[in-house]
Design brief:
With 476 residues, this protein is an all-alpha fold. 79% of the residues lie in helices and 0% in strands.
Length: 476
């Protein structure tokens, strides 16, 4: 049935539309971490091997990371609202299938479908936001809200996963998505304006779409499966063919002119490296708390609340003002430094580590850093992007975030396993985790150096000029 809904965005309902977009995004982000805490229960219930259990995560990452760039461009061509709604519906349906899965292959297949739906929905959200909020002050506020949902939602997923798994069962970490998805879909249809796309003729580069999707999926597969590095060469070759295709195609999928922007490319590269350290830390910190300090799933989730609160306070309360006052680049640099220090401190936690002394200060520093890093990078990545390319730019920054996260988890987990010598005693585990946390700190420091060298200095929007616009209260 053709969707004949017509929504007209006004200064008032734009913020309600933003909340709906963020609810849909929160569901997708929660799912990326809510599964981690439930993995032991899933492994026992479905009799999965360690390799099979890894595919509960990998199936989602491969579909999600591989399709983000294509999904963003499809949104530009046929309309971002339509792509968002389709992705939301598919993700919700796939979550239902995950919850009812009784065998390993059913869960893995449904997780792949979740990844497809998540890519479709999340790839276009940032593009919709920058279109809905064109003025610098409001755009900074809206991106801050979106960044908060993305960063804090990942930490909240650990808590929610622990609660649902411990009180009910692992099936409910997927069932909980269904009512959220249905409500978000119903509210989104009347609230989101139906913007006409450029049309498939403006960029229906089918060979290019096949090349880039195959390249990204193979790249993510190579990252999550350390024994498949030969495929990394194939992925690189496919990516090179895609670039060559875009340089000569009459209607390219990706305008290479977008990559001529120093800030767009720089922000994406910096984000990939920084997120590799941050998400790799999150994955290993859960293991440190559970396997070394003996925390259960619920206590582990509660332990991450401070980082969620720090991200929330910075993202919603200060990041937009700081970016408007000093510029995104000047906000980004000290924030990356705080992340690096927090990761290094976490690497010093020992066998007899104390949460209040060894873990909490590090989490707070990382929370403050992440609460400023993500909004600043998203602002830089979307600055100066033409409206017709906003979906593509949104998909690109989501792609680098997901690929960076997969890269960080794979590399840091490998380092932790090597440095532990295969031992399962607390001393061996701590040796591995400490080495991995210090490598994560080095990644954050490398991101800082890249930001200093690559990102251009831009004059900040004067605070006085920003104040001339009416303030808008945002309730989330």
């Amino acid at each position: 049935m053709k969707d004949r809904t017509r929504a007209v965005l006004t200064p008032e309902n734009r913020w309600f539309a933003l909340v709906v977009l963020c609810v849909g995004f929160l569901m997708i982000i929660l799912d990326s971490t809510i599964v981690n805490v439930a993995l032991p229960s899933i492994q026992t219930d479905l009799a999965l091997s360690s390799d099979g259990l890894a595919w509960v995560i990998n199936a989602y990452l491969i579909a999600f990371g591989g399709l983000l760039l294509l999904a963003g461009r499809v949104g530009d061509l046929i309309g971002r609202r339509q792509v968002f709604l389709a992705g939301l519906a598919l993700f919700t349906f796939a979550s239902l299938l995950c919850g009812f899965a009784a065998e390993a292959w059913q869960l893995i297949a449904a997780r792949f479908l979740q990844g497809v739906g998540g890519a479709l929905a999340s790839a276009v959200i940032l593009g919709m936001i920058v279109t809905m909020f064109p003025t610098p002050r409001e755009q900074a506020k809206a991106i801050a809200v979106f960044s908060f949902v993305g960063s804090a939602g990942a930490s909240l997923g650990l808590l929610l996963g622990g609660v649902l798994t411990q009180l009910l069962s692992w099936h409910w970490i997927f069932f909980v998505n269904v009512p959220i998805g249905v409500v978000a879909f119903v509210l989104a249809r009347p609230l989101l304006a139906r913007e006409p796309g450029l049309g498939l003729r403006a960029g229906a580069d089918v060979p290019g779409a096949v090349l880039v999707t195959a390249a990204l999926m193979l790249a993510v597969y190579t990252i999550v499966d350390a024994e498949s590095w030969l495929l990394g060469g194939v992925a690189f070759a496919l990516l090179a063919l895609f670039v060559a295709r875009q340089a000569t195609a009459e209607r390219p999928l990706l305008r290479l002119g977008l990559l001529k922007s120093r800030d767009v490319v720089g922000a994406n590269v910096v984000q990939m490296v920084a997120v590799a350290g941050m998400l790799g830390m999150s994955f290993l910190a859960v293991l440190y708390l559970q396997r070394v300090l003996g925390y259960d799933a619920f206590t582990t989730g509660v332990s991450f609340l401070p980082i969620s609160l720090a991200i929330g306070v910075l993202s919603l309360g200060f990041s937009a003002r700081l970016i408007m006052r000093f510029g995104a680049r000047l906000v980004l640099l000290p924030a990356l430094a705080l992340m690096a220090v927090g990761l290094f401190l976490l690497g010093q936690a020992g066998v007899d580590g104390q949460y209040w002394v060894d873990v909490l200060p590090a989490l707070l520093l990382m929370g403050v850093g992440a609460g400023l890093v993500i909004p600043a990078l998203m602002t830089l990545a979307m600055a100066g992007v033409a409206p017709q390319d906003s979906g593509l730019a949104s998909g690109l920054i989501n792609t680098t975030q997901q690929v960076g996260g997969a890269f960080g988890i794979a590399i840091l987990a490998s380092v932790a396993a090597r440095e532990s010598g295969g031992g399962e005693d607390p001393a061996s585990l701590v040796a591995g985790y400490s080495a991995a946390f210090e490598l994560a700190a080095a990644l954050a420091a490398a991101a800082l150096v890249m930001a200093v060298v690559v990102l251009r200095r831009r004059p900040a929007v004067a605070a006085e000029a920003a104040v001339e616009e009416p303030a808008v209260a945002v309730t989330v």
